[in-house]
Amino acid sequence: MVHMQHYFARELPAGLESLGDLALDLRWSWSHASDTLWKRIDQELWEATGNPWLILENTSRDHLEALARDNDFLDKLRGQVRARDESLNAPTWFSEQDDTRELDLVAYFSMEFGLSEALPIYSGGLGILAGDMLKTASDLGVPMVGVGLLYQQGYFRQMINVKGQQQAYFPYNNPAMLPVLPVRKSDGSWLHVNVEFPGRMLRLRCWEARVGRVRLLLLDANGMSNHPRDRGITGELYGGDEETRLQQEIVLGIGGWRMLDALGLTPTVSHLNEGHAAFAVLQRAAQCARQHDLDFITALQATRAGNLFTTHTPVVAAFDQFPSALIRKYFNSFAKQWMVDIEALLDLGRTHLGDERELFNMAFLALRASGAINGVSRLHGIVSRELFAPLFPRWPLAEIPVGHVTNGVHTPSWDSAEADDLWTKACGENRWISSLDGIEVAITTLDDTTLWDFRTRQRQRLISTVRVHAAHQRAGRAESERRIEECSLLFDPNALTLGFARRFTGYKRPNLLLVQPERLARLLCNQRHPVQLVLSGKAHPRDLDGQDMIRQWIEFIARADIQGRVVFIEDYDMAVASDLVQGVDAWINTPRRPWEASGTSGMKILVNGGLNISELDGWWAEAYSPEVGWALGDGNEHGIDPAWDFEEADALYQLLETSIVPEFYERNDDGIPSRWVSRVRASMARLTPAYSTNRMLREYVENYYLPRAEAFSRRIANNGRGACDLRKWSARVAAHWSAVRIGDLECQKQDNGMIANAQIFLDGLPPDDIAVELYADGIGANGASECYWMERVQTLAGAVNGFRYRVSLTTTRPSNDYTVRVRPAHPLAEVPLEEPHILWSR
Ligand SMILES: *Cc1c(COP(=O)(O)O)cnc(C)c1O
């Protein structure tokens, strides 16, 4: 490995060179042992930015030279360097798995990565998931490289003015101050990749960030050699118009894959975090076609086996889509270069082939070019099967090929210092980097006093933080000295502290608690059992309804009778989230089911002993049980219905009034709320490991990455013979399918079952190209369907390519519950994902 100092922007004094390596490894965002070093160098800047790289760039030479003579500092530095080396070289969960040979490298593509405030290239949950994913890949030793964009401005920063209006600011990300470096070629020059844009060549700069064992490679368009109109393409995350968005996605997908290629990286698995990155599959196919001398479509068939698409969308309207004309404008030249018909490319993003009016759907492209698809919670898996069902006409819903892996959070990134301490004592140092066995038992044995004390210390720290934030905000709005001083008295360290922070947007219903403001006021200001609430969240600059909901809260907070029991912390970001999830007693989440595909913020409080009060949506729909928290909603979908919102708000108040608040204040002789603490213990023990990215990534490896890698190598072996075979099979199926026919079905009752015989006429298809199955729907709403493979037993006399198929089965159901179906089959193919044809006898 090349040492990072090679690229270090400034000379560090002898003895301190390794500080550069430490500062550039974002491992410091979750492993806090090196914090003392950065504090020693510049405490103020460390507290303001949490960015060691910036600290190094800003420190005077004299100060650095003094530190280079300071033996205590040097000792600490050497200790940290040793600790980092040891952890990077230790055996990992992945290195100890058998049969991982086929999985050389996973490329993880995402529009955003939320690793730390010091690298602000994310907006919310999707990015944080991506960041947590890379950190976990480092922990578990999964070979992964991240691919993303380096935005000049990232997502907007928020201030709220005295009128409660949100102000959006776009500070400039100076790449020299971010913990990233240019990617250099072996000759020392800066690596660039080119992407053809209409009438011009876009030249992209390549950057890298280090995340422990894992690299995150980033592209930006802001190089001097690009035309001024193009230099802003990677300016703003989720900013600009439709065309900018398409340009960004081309840069991410096509530029991203080319960057990997230029670095000699050949991932066996390509993981698309949401449809934004789907163009990567096209460049991957093009590269494979060149390398193995295949045509583009065959190469796509080969490589798709190695692609995994994770969808995060719960509604059709949220899919990323572009007009055909715009796709033509940008993809004509790619199509020529790849020697594929542009119409074939366009069809990859449509439901109805050839329909020019239909928008090009990035999720459909991803689906048609992947070997597997997953949603991000059990419920979201079900919802996604409904969303994608139109691409699989006549297939039963349960067989629509979308699985699920429930999201998690990178626990070491979200735990407090107190939690780190408590968990280390209970479960050991390496608890989050191995298989999580034994954690539940260890936490279950913690006693009430320990847990309550743990909760109290974290709540106290949050309250100091809230006071600092509030004073800062009031000062920023030029409020009076007295108002600023009053902040030191905000909140009561012994009062029940609730948190609510998320994007302010309609479906999250951030103002559900405001449906009956007087009732909320009574709850908050109860003399004996006071409640306090910390809020935070941004509304997209174009989401006026979201901004209005912020304003409603600010007005409520300003009421004299609320007595400062609610604080809105501006500029929700990872740092604010981190403060909140460590300190709150309970976290409220009120999405409109099923719009919260998973949700992760509620998972961040688990390790810190917070409890969830949440709608039965996303992850909570599978995590909830009465011992671990509280549920809202009836587990059904109600659409956008103000009457139902009112009912749920009513239920939320009632839950707070009759259950949550009383339980928190119900103390035993030792002053401990023992029922509350029991919940804390159960939630920590059961849910923390289950909703971690450790569990999540191991599921991805076992259920997706390894099978994908193997499927890809089977297709690509012998210069793609498997893929060519598949291609021919696909063509045969397409040519003959409409003439395949099911003749008579005869069912004979047996003692405890039946024998079914079916006549099948295959037109020109060899029988091995298809499978014949006997099928029955499940009984009742939740019954599992039955499906039996039928054996080809006889050629039908006098028929051309007609056969009798038979199966004998045990059943008590009547024979007319059963139907026969014919579907394509091939040992290398995923059906119905790759061949959605199906024929039913009725
Ligand atoms: C965790 C997190 C999110 C995602 O929260 P959800 O409630 O899952 O939407 C968004 N923004 C920040 C800053 C976060 O830390």
UniProtKB/TrEMBL annotation:
Catalytic activity reported: [(1->4)-alpha-D-glucosyl](n) + phosphate = [(1->4)-alpha-D-glucosyl](n-1) + alpha-D-glucose 1-phosphate
Instruction: Spell out which residues are annotated as carrying N6-(pyridoxal phosphate)lysine.
Output: 604
GO molecular function terms here?
Answer: glycogen phosphorylase activity; pyridoxal phosphate binding
Q: Which UniProt keywords apply?
A: Allosteric enzyme, Pyridoxal phosphate
DUF3417 domain segment(s): 12-119
The UniProt entry's GO biological process terms, in alphabetical order, are: carbohydrate metabolic process
Q: Which family does it belong to?
A: Belongs to the glycogen phosphorylase family.
Checking PANTHER family in the record gives:
GLYCOGEN PHOSPHORYLASE (PTHR42655:SF1)
- The entry's protein name is Alpha-glucan phosphorylase
Organism in which the protein naturally occurs? Acidihalobacter yilgarnensis
The top of its lineage is:
Bacteria, Pseudomonadati, Pseudomonadota, Gammaproteobacteria, Chromatiales
